[in-house]
Amino acid sequence: MPQAGELDHAPAQRLVSFRHSTKQSCNLSCREVEPIPKRTVSTEPEPEVAILVAVEPRNARGNWSLEDTLNELDYLARTAGAEVAARVTQRSEHFTQTYVGKGKVQEIVELIAETQADVVIFDDELTPTQQRNLENALGTKVIDRTALILDVFSRHAQTYEGKLQVELAQHKYLLPRLAGQWSHLERLGGGIGTRGPGETQIETDRRLVRNRIQHIERDLDKVRRRRSIYMGRRKRSTIPIASLVGYTNAGKSTLFNALSNAKVTAEDQLFSTLDPVTRRVRLPSGAPLLLADTVGFIQKLSPTVVAAFRATLEEVAEADVLLHVIDVSHPKAPEQTEVVETILKDMGLEDRPRILVANKMDLVTSHDKNGGSGKGLAEGSVDLRTRGLDARNSVFVSAAKRWNLDELLKMIESELMNIDGPLTVIGPASGG
Ligand SMILES: Nc1nc2c(ncn2[C@@H]2O[C@H](COP(=O)(O)OP(=O)(O)OP(=O)(O)O)[C@@H](O)[C@H]2O)c(=O)[nH]1
Ligand SMILES: [Mg+2]
Questions:
Q1: Rounded distance between C-alpha atoms, residue 219 and residue 217, angstroms
Q2: Which residue, by CA, sits nearest to atom 16 of ligand 1?
């Protein structure tokens, strides 16, 4: 029971005490309780103002231009809640000490003053040294692409396992970068009182982070063991599994919802989906199929991030057939497709049966949903081959408009028929 005197603490404390006391037919007279002045306080955090910086090495390979890469970084930054005030680019090699050259560093310093930027975001993963040097030179918060992606992940993770995975990746990312945060102590001229505590603090911090990493790994292990029992059971059930894979924002969740009548978050932002979900759907013959939706891919996905999501991606590896969803309306569709195929190859899945699902056809065709088959769609609008994609085994759909989904299901079924093994593909399912 709060005492009248206790009500003069911090505002949050006051609110709790007030609510508590009014609920009771209190000994404390309600007149003794100070009314809380009404204030309208916005709970929306102010967006951070960001400056984006990217470097294009002279011998850059591939078809991603600096502008494409920056557009994507811009999108990521906005998804993380930032407001982009300026972009800085440089065509040269990466500078080992500061990522960009001296002149560019000075240009960024001036831009920070001009735009009142809170944060400078670099398009590649910075080394701990680069990060420290840049923080010193710019006098502001410096983050890189990996930290930005992890930030978006931490906003979108919903399950316990997803949250643990993100936290693990963040701690692993932090560990080699801890030293820099204390180096200022050593540079204060050295001498008594600067060497020891600085070192000790770094060691203490590192130990705390390592302990936390161990702790998370243990917890993750427990969660995964439970999941692998479930996955084993699912595998033994002989119901085939199809996994949606693809570049982030390609429309995987929209397609997942359209096929399974689920309500998974599908939004126009990067990495809306982080946690894998599975639903049962019916194939045209009536046989059941387990459809899985999962995390999207992106270019320059650092090994730290891939490692953190290894287990989630292993779910993809369980699939009998992969549905590679492509946003055909995107100007970089072929490049995005290549990024996805490279990651799948790194996961040893290059030979896994797959169907290319050319999505968002409504944005590139005037097709009337009542007319034309998938073939008609392909012939009448975008030819995947001209976009550098393999047109074999592909189907043209619009997940949003539910165009051609029957065709897709038929293709999945015929793909599954070609697979050896105990899959229940034909005939109506018993139950479910
Ligand atoms: N016009 C159109 N928009 C679509 C279609 N499919 C998806 N979208 C939109 O594309 C955006 C991304 O869709 P999602 O389903 O969230 O994409 P995702 O691949 O799951 O994305 P992540 O989970 O972030 O990797 C959303 O705004 C959808 O409404 C489509 O067929 N046509
Ligand atoms: Mg999604």
A1: 5
A2: 266
H or E, element range at 209:
helix 195-236
Encoded tokens for 371: 């007319």
pLDDT digits 0-9 by tens, 319-351: 999 999 999 999 888 889 888 988 888 888 888
Looking at the CA of 79, which ligand is closest?
1
> Any idea which residue has 């929306």 for tokens?
44
3-state SS, one letter per residue, for 315-378: HHHCCCEEEEEEECCCCCHHHHHHHHHHHHHHCCCCCCCEEEEEECHHHCCCCCCCCCCHHHHH
Q: What separation in Å is there between the alpha carbon of 292 and the centre of ligand 2? A: 11
In the reported structure, the alpha carbon of residue 237 is separated from the centroid of ligand 2 by a whole-number distance in angstroms of: 26
Measure the CA–CA gap between 111 and 119, rounded to whole angstroms.
11
CA of 248 to the centre of ligand 1 (A): 9
Residue 123 vs residues 69, 90, 109: alpha-carbon distances, Å = 8, 11, 17
CA-CA-CA-CA torsion sign (388, 390, 396, 400) = negative
Could you tell me the two tokens for 261?
A: 């009548």
CA 57 / ligand 2 centre spacing (Å)? 32
Q: What pLDDT, on the 0 to 100 scale, is given for residue 348?
A: 86
Q: Which residue, 237, 202, 218, is CA-closest to 424?
A: 237
Alpha-carbon gap, residue 27 to 189, rounded angstroms: 62
Counting ligand 1 atoms within 8 A of each CB, the residue from 78, 158, 243, 254 with the most, and so the one to mutate, is 254
**310-317 vs 195-236: helix axis angle to the nearest 10?**
20
Closest CA to 119 of 57, 65, 73: 73
Q: What's the pLDDT tens digit per position in 260-286? A: 986 666 666 677 666 778 889 999 999
Cα 343–Cα 345–Cα 351 angle in degrees, nearest 5? 140
Does ligand 1 lie within 6 Å of residue 363's CB atom? yes
Which residue from 249, 255, 323, 328 has its CB within 8 A of the most atoms of ligand 1, so it is best to mutate? 249
55 pLDDT higher than 80: yes
pLDDT, one tens digit per residue, over 395-406 is 999 999 999 999
Are 393 and 356 a contacting pair, CB within 8 Å? yes
In angstroms, the CA 385 to CA 424 distance is 34
CB 418 within 8 A of CB 379: no
Q: How long a stretch of residues is the chain?
A: 432
Q: Could you tell me if the CB of 312 is within 6 A of ligand 1?
A: no
